């Protein structure tokens, strides 16, 4: 039995779980519950257990390659972010290895494993859900340079540089409230980015003493303009909002198309605010009010922090966690 198997057996004995469960938890498998994974990871940390791929990365020579993990390519902001990061890395003598998770926890876990096994010098990533937080934390605990490009509302002891999406949604909802709206809808998905935005929406309602109506929260089932087009009908007919916050510009633009085809006047009968302030928002038939995502600020600060972490790792310097929040701006147009 090799040393890795021996250490996993020791973890299994101490935690009471099977070796198979321990192995799956250490690999970040979504088949293992968060509670079980947390117990196993804590025991592994106490025993100073380091998985092989992480151990190899800790003694590597620099490869001058940075891994980038994106949730999707459909979102033009993420594409622009990757392009900006690539330009910065090129100027600094680094190559980029891009991985797309398609908002899948399983694909995200695989992307992390692939990048670490390829011995990249560091990782910049948009996390999907909580399933891989233990894996991310394990990397950080072993001084692997990893920076999250999101992370406002959840507690994860890892460096993060992010646009404050919660504050953006708060500003959007407050703008509608100040315009006299009381039935404000919210249309988005279920990932962490959208949950942060939803929390900002809730906070604005609460601070302005507007009762929360769950029927005003709609869920999109996919990405793209068609997601907004398909999702607005149920929200509009069931809840009759007078304004809607959409978690992506393209969701708002798809919803606005549905409204125009049915003679619902924008903004007189139904107003919209999107997120990201993409080019499509300003060139739409009815220009869309949107919460701006400052790509340059995120990419510059995130790469700067990553280079600092790589330098600290090379010099065996202690790393204190940093969370850098970038304040969003509401770009007001005619929607």
From TrEMBL:
SMART domains: HTH_LACI. The keyword Ion transport does not apply. It comes from the Bacteria. Keywords: DNA-binding, Transcription, Transcription regulation. The keyword Transmembrane helix does not apply. Pfam families: LacI (PF00356), Peripla_BP_3 (PF13377). Residues 6-60 form the HTH lacI-type domain. InterPro entries: HTH_LacI, LacI/GalR-like_sensor. PANTHER family: HTH-TYPE TRANSCRIPTIONAL REPRESSOR PURR-RELATED, LACI-RELATED TRANSCRIPTIONAL REPRESSOR. This is HTH-type transcriptional regulator DegA.
């Amino acid at each position: 039995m090799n040393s890795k198997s021996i250490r996993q057996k020791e973890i299994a004995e101490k935690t009471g779980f099977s070796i198979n469960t321990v192995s799956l938890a250490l690999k970040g498998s979504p088949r293992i519950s968060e509670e079980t994974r947390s117990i196993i990871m804590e025991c592994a940390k106490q025993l100073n257990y380091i998985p092989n791929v992480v151990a190899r990365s800790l003694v590597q020579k620099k490869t001058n390659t940075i891994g980038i993990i994106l949730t999707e390519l459909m979102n033009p902001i993420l594409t622009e972010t990757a392009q900006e990061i690539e330009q910065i890395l090129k100027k600094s003598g680094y190559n980029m290895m891009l991985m797309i998770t398609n908002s899948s926890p399983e694909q995200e876990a695989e992307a992390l494993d692939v990048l670490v096994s390829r011995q990249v010098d560091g990782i910049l990533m948009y996390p999907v859900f909580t399933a891989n937080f233990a894996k991310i934390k394990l990397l950080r605990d072993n001084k692997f340079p990893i920076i999250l490009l999101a992370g406002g509302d959840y507690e994860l002891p890892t460096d993060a540089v992010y646009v404050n999406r919660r504050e953006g949604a708060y500003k959007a909802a407050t703008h509608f409230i100040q315009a006299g709206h009381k039935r404000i809808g919210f249309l988005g998905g279920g990932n962490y980015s959208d949950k942060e935005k939803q929390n900002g929406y809730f906070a604005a309602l609460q601070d302005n003493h507007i009762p929360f109506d769950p029927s005003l929260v709609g869920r999109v089932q996919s990405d793209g303009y068609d997601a907004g087009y398909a999702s607005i009908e149920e929200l509009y007919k069931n809840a009759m909002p007078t304004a809607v916050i959409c978690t992506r510009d393209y969701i708002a633009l798809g919803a606005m198309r549905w409204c125009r085809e049915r003679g619902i006047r924008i903004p007189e009968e139904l107003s919209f605010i999107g997120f990201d302030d993409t080019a499509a928002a300003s060139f739409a038939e009815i220009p869309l009010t949107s919460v701006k995502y400052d790509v340059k600020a995120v990419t510059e600060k995130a790469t700067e922090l990553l280079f600092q972490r790589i330098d600290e790792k090379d010099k065996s310097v202690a790393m204190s966690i940093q969370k850098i929040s970038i304040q969003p701006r509401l770009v007001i147009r005619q929607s």
